[in-house]
Amino acid sequence: MKLLCLGDSLTYGFAVQPDQSWTALVSAKSLIHIDNEGQCGDTTTGMVYRLHQFDLSRYDAFFVMGGSNDILLDGDLENICRNIRNIVTTFKAQGKPVYLGIPPLTTMESAMYGWQNARDVEKHNDQLRQYRQWLLSYGKETGCHIIDFYEALFNAKRRTGRNLYADGVHPNAEGYAVLAREVLKVMGG
Questions:
Q1: What GO annotations for molecular function exist for this entry (predicted)?
Q2: Helices 77-92 and 121-142: crossing angle, nearest 10°?
Q3: How many domains, the chain?
Q4: Alpha helices, DSSP H, located in 35-172
Q5: Inter-residue contact 165 to 172 (CB < 8 Å)
Q6: C-beta atoms surrounding 50 within 10 Å
Q7: pLDDT 10s per residue in the chain (189 long)?
Q8: Closest Cα partner for 138 from 76, 64, 188?
Q9: Which residues contact 75 (CB under 8 A, 6 or more apart)?
């Protein structure tokens, strides 16, 4: 399968070596060939713009995950949802499977790295929780396959007690391995 992955730094694999990103791990452990079009710092508006640069007919399936940067920049949730709708609609028009990624929460550590102010962490996480609920509902409504990184990281942290973040926003190598396992579970690798 040839998969186009459109996203931000969480898809790109920021904070780890290239072979430790979830996309590289999935490719190494399956027959899924991934074109990783994750771009650090990208917003859902940027993803809508970039979407038209790809020949979608070359792919067997599509993955999209965005919104974290929008939320960290205090973007409007309605606009984020509208952008994701536009991307999914474009992908769906190809008549091929669409995978919808749900971004994980942030931690207080993210403020030390300058990703957000400490006073905004809980507000942004509340928005990420609301966004997750919308993505779950929208994914079901549109027949997208959900890949819930939010739940996967949360459950792995609760189960192991280990820190799975490099900087409070991006996973560390162990965290990206959790994300890769979640993708393989959903896609069947």
A1: phosphatidylcholine lysophospholipase activity
A2: 30
A3: 1
A4: 44-51, 68-72, 77-92, 109-112, 121-142, 149-160
A5: yes
A6: 14
A7: 999 999 999 999 999 999 999 999 999 999 999 999 999 999 999 999 999 999 999 999 999 999 999 999 999 999 999 999 999 999 999 999 999 999 999 999 999 999 999 999 999 999 999 999 999 999 999 999 999 999 999 999 999 999 999 999 999 999 999 999 999 999 986
A8: 64
A9: 43, 44, 69
Q: Could you say which DSSP state residue 58 is in?
A: G
**Closest CA relative to residue 170, chosen from 37, 44, 16, 60:** 16
d(CA 145, CA 98) in angstroms, rounded, equals 6
Structural domain for 87, as ranges: 2-187
Residue 8 sits in a domain of what CATH number?
A: 3.40.50.1110
Which tokens is 48 given?
Answer: 């809508």
